[in-house]
Amino acid sequence: MTSCAVEGGCPSDYVAVSISVLSFILLLARLIFPFVVHKVPCSKGSGFWIPLIKVFASFNLLLSIVMSLNFLKFKRTQWWQSCYLWAVWFEGPLGFGLLLSCRITQAFHLYCIFVKRRLPPIRSYILLPLILLPWIAWAAFIHVRMPLNYHCHMGTGWVIPVVSLHALYVAPLVGFTGAVWHIEFRFNEVRDLWLGILLSASSIGVWIAAYIVNEIHDDNSWLQVASRFLLLVTSSIVVLAFFSTSISQPLLSQINLRRRNTREFQTMGQALGIPDSGLLSQSEWSPIVYPNAPLDKLLLNKRFRQSFMAFADSCLAGESVHFFDEVHELSKIPEDDPVRRIYMARHIIEKYIVAGAAMEVNISHRSRQEILTTPNLARTGLFHNALNELMQLMKTNLSKDYWSSMYFIKFREDASVTYGHELEEMTGWNFSPRLSSVHATDDPFTN
Predict the structure, then answer these.
(1) Domain final position from 227, 257, 287
(2) What stretches pass through the bilayer (predicted)?
(3) Among 43-52, 107-116, 369-378, 412-421, which is the least confidently predicted range?
(4) What is the pTM of this model?
(5) Residue 190 and which of 78, 115, 184, 269 are 20 to 30 A apart at CA?
C-alpha cells in the first residue's frame, strides 16, 4: 500500500480513473447526441462555444487530478509532468476555474435577460476571461512562490486560500441563480441551474474535505489513497452536474430534446404556446387581392402571408417576410406575460437582428442598435421601426414581382371569399410611409 500510495497504481486508483473516463464519455455523448441523432444545426455565438469550453474545462480538471496526484504509476522526469503545470494551471484556471466561469456567465445572462429585461451589457467572450482573471492571477502567484513539494502538495498554510478561491467562484453562481428564482420560466433553466448547483455543492463539499486531507496528511498512505480516490470521483460528478443544460436563449432544437411527448415544435411560437402559431386551418380564408391593395394589410392574412413568403424564399429574399411573421406572432402574446414576450423577442433578435444571424435582415444601423440596446425586451414597440423599414423594402423589391408570379396566380385560384371578411388584427403597429436608410455593413453589439 505504501508503495502505490506514493508511486500510484493502487486498485482504487484504477477504479477512480475508470469512473472519470466513463463520466467524460457520457459528457461527450450529451454534447454530440443532438447533432448526430436529431440533426440539430450548429448555433452561432455563446450558445455553441460555451458548452464546448465546458467540455474542455471538464477534461482538463479530470486529467489534471490524475496527473498531479499519482493515479498512474510513473516517474516525473519530463517537463510536461511538472506539478505546477497540472496541479496549478490545468486544475485551476483551465479546469475548475474555467468550468465555474462558464456557469457564472450563463447565470449572468439569465439575470440580465429575465430580471433586467435587456441583453447582457458585455459580450460573453469578454465576460468569461474577466471572470477567470482572479484564478489566473492566483495560479501565477503560486507558480512564482513555488510552494509545491514532489508530491504536488502545498502544505497547511496554503489550504485556506485555495479553498477560499473555490468559494469565491461558487458564491456569484448561487447569487445570480437566486436572483432569477422568482421568474416563472417557460422551460427549465433555473431548475437545471439549481440541480447543478446542489449536486455540485454536495460533491464540492466532499471534494474540499478530501483535498484538505490529501494536502495535510502527506505521510499517511491510507488517507492519501482514499482522499485522491474521492477527489477524482467527486470531480467526475461535478463535471456532469455542471454540464446540465441551462441557457439564456433556448434554441428550438434544445427545446425539442426536452419534450416529454412526441409533438415536434417547428417554430418558437409553437414552443411558447402562442395560439395558432405556424398552423393554417382549412377554414382560413383567402382574400381576393389586387396589385394596388396595401401590402401591410394583406400580410395580416395567414394564407396570403404564406404565399408571399414562399415567393420571397424562391427569390432568396425571404428574411423580411419571415421577420414580419415572427413579429406578428410576438404581437399575440399579452403584455402582462413578459416572460414569454422576452423568450420570443430574444429568439427574433438572435435569428434576424444580430450581425451574422441565420436570417439577418437588412435594416438601418440606428434601428438595429435601438433593438440591441433596449432597456426592456418585453415592450410592445421593440421591432416597430425595423418593421417599418422592411415593409418599405418589401413593397419596393418584392411586391411588384409577386403580382406577376406563379405564386400569386396559384393563390388567386385558391381564393374563395371576398374582402367582406375581417383580416387578422395586428395590434400595436402603425406602418410609416417613410423610406429607410439601409447600411449592409453594420456591426452591432452581439452576445
Answers:
(1) 257
(2) 15-36, 48-72, 84-104, 125-146, 158-181, 193-213, 225-252
(3) 412-421
(4) 0.78
(5) 269
Residue holding cell 417554430?
A: 267
Examine the fold and report which residue of 207, 236, 257 is the final residue of a domain before the chain moves on: 257
CA distance 344 to 326: 8
- Please, which pLDDT band fits residue 291 given cuts at 50, 70 and 90? low
DSSP string, 219-271: T-HHHHHHHHHHHHHHHHHHHHHHTS---SS--HHHHHHH-SSS---SSHHHH
Distance of CA 383 to CAs 105, 158, 271, 348, 435, Å? 27, 55, 21, 9, 16
Same-domain check for residues 391 and 280: yes
Contact predicate 265/252, CB 8 Å: yes
| 208 and 303 within one domain | no
Amino acid at 100: L
DSSP codes of every residue in 351-386: IIISTT-TT-----HHHHHHHHT-S-TT-TTTTHHH
- Closest by CA position to 367, among listed 351, 381, 347, 357: 381
Distance from the Cα of residue 399 to its chain's centroid: 37
The answer on 242 and 390 residing in a single domain is no
> Which domain does 354 fall in, by range?
268-447
282-291 residues labelled b (16+ CB within 10 A) or e (exposed): eeebbbebee
What's the grid cell of residue 269? 411560437
**Contact call for residues 239 and 24 (beta carbons, < 8 A):** yes
- Which pLDDT band, with edges at 50, 70 and 90, does 132 fall under? very high
User: Which is nearest to 341 in space by CA: 380, 303, 369, 288?
Assistant: 380
pLDDT for the residue numbered 290: 62
239 shares its domain with 272? no
